[in-house]
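Inverse folding, one chain.
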């Protein structure tokens, strides 16, 4: 199993693209073979942060850039436990644009993001269709 701790940071950088094919973690197209770390060891890595290994279990910390309106799940993330190979979904970078421009294209009402942080603020702030003057 792989446990990814996330370290949120306000930044204009894009979030990394992350995937896992045990024991190789791929971050932005670069493969990191976690099995190269000896069992029981802990090491600092410039991309993966503090990496530790106990048998076939690994734990590391990834930097999580986020935008100025990032939801609470991004600003205060829980660790991600990875048990299967494939892409790893990170919390959203910022609030979804459709929430800010609801009704602008007539197709999406923002219901896909129901339950995200900030939803109650928008409902008390008006229709969201006004443009800044």
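Residues assigned per position:
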């Amino acid at each position: 199993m792989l446990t990814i701790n996330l370290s949120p940071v306000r930044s204009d950088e894009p979030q990394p693209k992350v995937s896992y094919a045990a024991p190789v973690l791929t971050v932005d197209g670069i493969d990191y073979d976690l099995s190269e770390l000896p069992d029981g060891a802990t090491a600092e890595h410039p991309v993966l942060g503090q990496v530790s290994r106990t048998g076939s279990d690994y734990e590391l910390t990834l930097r999580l850039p986020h935008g100025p309106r990032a939801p609470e799940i991004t600003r205060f993330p829980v660790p991600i436990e990875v048990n299967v190979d494939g892409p790893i979904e990170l919390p959203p970078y910022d609030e979804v644009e459709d929430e800010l421009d609801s009704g602008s294209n007539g197709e999406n009402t923002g219901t896909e993001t129901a339950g995200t942080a900030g939803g109650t603020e928008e409902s008390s702030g008006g229709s969201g269709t006004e443009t800044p003057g």
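Confidence is low (pLDDT under 50) at residues 99-133. The beta strands are 2-10, 18-21, 24-27, 30-33, 42-45, 49-54, 57-66, 80-82, 86-88.
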